[in-house]
Design goal:
Elements lengths: L2 E8 L8 E8 L5 H11 L3 E7 L5 E6 L4 E2 L3 H13 L9 E5 L2 E8 L2 E7 L4 E2 L6 H5 L5 E4 L3 E5 L3 H6 L4 H5 L5 E7 L7 E7 L4 E4 L6 H12 L3 E6 L5 E8 L2 E6 L1 E9 L1
Parallel strand pairs: 2-3, 4-6, 11-12, 13-15
Antiparallel strand pairs: 1-2, 1-18, 3-4, 4-5, 6-7, 7-8, 8-17, 9-10, 10-11, 12-13, 13-14, 15-16, 16-17
């Protein structure tokens, strides 16, 4: 038996940019240990596994090289992209995914894929004493949601300059840490970086799920519901955000760079 597997650059309009995700199309549910092994073999931030339901929706699970995660934006975008590209969904048809974070939907809007995700706002709190030393920069705000810490730093240059102590971040007991600041240019609203060594990803290139926290945070600070975020990683990527109550609509593009058979 063999399975179709793809590598897709998500939140990208050209190959070798954005965030690479694996997408594996299964004919039936697979053992968790096997999916974890495949994700380790792919060795990208997340690999998505899809199983089609009788109603046309898909069961969707995400694995980093070391753990299963509850929510992943870029691998969901990559999954929807593959379904349309391979003709498994009609051009005008929405993708529906059953996940550990509820039902997620994706649709095409011009040349952009839009995804309806749960908002994951952070609650301001007292950061662990080790967080600032681990990041190596001061921050003016710290808040936490069910997955991550989010900290706001002084400016875009500070975001770019962060060189964290990854072992100390991994010891915090959360999925990851989002570092963000208001943008210094008018074409975008905010910038961020995301570090998740505790989940097997030292720095994620572009993180859709982090924008489920970033979008409501900056919407509240900037007084606007439509925002453009840029993740300032080496590969980089742009995430278009729309805050709608307790939901966040994320938008981006994707490019398939590899198609193979998993034996």
């Amino acid at each position: 038996m063999s399975w179709d597997i793809y590598q897709v650059d998500a939140f990208a309009d050209r190959p070798f940019s954005g965030n690479p995700a694996g997408v594996c199309l299964l004919t039936a549910a697979a053992p968790e240990s096997w999916m974890q092994s495949v994700a380790g073999e792919m060795n990208v931030a997340e690999t998505a596994f899809l199983v089609r339901r009788t109603d046309g929706a898909y069961d969707l699970r995400w694995f980093t090289p070391t753990v299963e995660v509850d929510l992943c934006g870029h691998a969901t975008l990559a999954s929807a992209h593959v379904l349309w590209e391979q003709g498994l969904l009609a051009e005008a048809e929405s993708a529906r995914f059953h996940t550990r974070s509820g039902i997620l939907t994706a649709w095409r809007e011009g040349g952009t894929i839009r995804m309806d995700f749960p908002a994951e706002p952070v609650q301001e709190g007292t950061a662990p004493a080790t967080l600032a030393p681990a990041l190596g920069v001061p921050f003016s705000f710290a808040g936490k949601n069910r997955m991550d810490w989010l900290v706001e730093v002084a400016d875009e240059a500070t975001v770019h300059a962060v060189r964290p102590e990854l072992r100390a971040l991994a010891a915090l007991g959360v999925r990851g840490v989002i570092v963000t600041a208001v943008s210094s240019t008018p074409e975008r609203d905010f910038v961020s970086r995301f570090f998740a060594p505790g989940a097997g990803v030292d720095e994620d290139p572009v993180t859709g799920s982090a924008h489920c926290a970033l979008a409501p945070y900056w919407a509240g600070k900037l007084g606007k519901s439509e925002l453009i975020g840029v993740q300032d990683s080496t590969r980089g990527g742009t995430v278009r955000c729309r805050v709608q109550g307790d939901r966040v609509v994320l938008g981006g593009q994707a490019v398939t760079v590899l198609r193979a058979k998993l034996l």
